[in-house]
Amino acid sequence: MFADYTNFPLYGLLVSGTWLTGSLLIWITVFMIKPVSGKTRLGMVLNAEQVLKTPAGRATAFAGNILVVTGILLFAYYLAVLWISLGRAPMRTLGETRLWYSFFLGLIGYLTYLRWNYKWFLVYSVLMAVLFMVINLIHPENFSKTLMPALQSPWFVPHVIVYIFAYALLGAASIVAVYGMWLEYFRTFRKNLLHLADNLVYIGFAFLTLGLVFGAIWAKEAWGHYWTWDPKETWAFITWMAYLLYIHFRYFHPKRVRTPLWILALAFIVLLIAWFGVNYLPSAQSSVHVYS
Question: Which domain holds residue 175?
């Protein structure tokens, strides 16, 4: 099956369907758990080992994992063949970056589920990834195979790919923030959630820093300056500072809960402005960073 932008709706629907169905099958294993004492109710004991000892639990979890992995492989195939068909990295337009963001977010959600068994995190990651695919379906773009001279650089792919990967990790951290605030204000907060957020932010911040460094080197080669305080560069730096603030706050106030959750949520808004919100600023219309 060939892959290009004309048949993205087909791939988008296939990936969305496998991810949504697979993650929901994994999620419902929570409600297949038998109570272990008179004080617990069905669905309240999150003991994955108990579920997997039952035939129904094993079959449901296996089917869910197969569907999620199938979606990841299908998406990876689409991106690879799209890259070949365009003759360039599909990272030039805003729609193309949304494709990579969706792919990485689904992948991160599944890997996090495998590592820490957070079924809710997998479901919410998939929902966010599908949302960005739906945006591409609703707002199709006119795509070109050509790249402007400034983009014909060996730094183009590493700069964009590490940034989008960082955005996906930090977007996943924002899921933890929103879920954590819901628990903190309406349920019972579990402190291990902040440890999950920390791990996502630490890795995401490292890739965000790499993106800044790669962009500066690329700018020096293309325009003779490492940094020009272009609107996109300015908001990228503000985003970097926002997540650095979270890291410092967590280090100096490890027992605080609400403030770091709010910092994470607000930092993600800043990230979205840096990613595509800055395109709508009047000062950015002459920027070399505006997606075309």
Answer: 147-292
**Amino acid found at 191:** K
Q: What is the pLDDT of residues 234-243, one digit of tens each?
A: 999 999 999 9
| pLDDT given at position 134 | 94
Which residue type sits at 122? L
3-state secondary structure of 14: helix
Q: What is the C-alpha separation between 158 and 215, in angstroms, rounded? A: 9
Domain count, the chain: 1
- Element of type H or E holding 172: helix 156-186
Q: Tell me the mean pLDDT in the region 182-207.
A: 92
Structural domain contains residue 249: yes
Collapsed DSSP state (helix, strand, coil) of residue 46:
coil
What's the DSSP call for residue 288? Answer: T
- Say which CATH number the domain at 232 has: 1.20.120
Q: What is the DSSP letter of 90?
A: S
Give domain status of residue 188, yes or no: yes
> 6 pLDDT band (50/70/90 cuts)?
low
Quick one: which of 272, 240, 242, 277 has its CA closest to 260? 242
Residue 203 to residue 208: CA distance in whole angstroms? 9
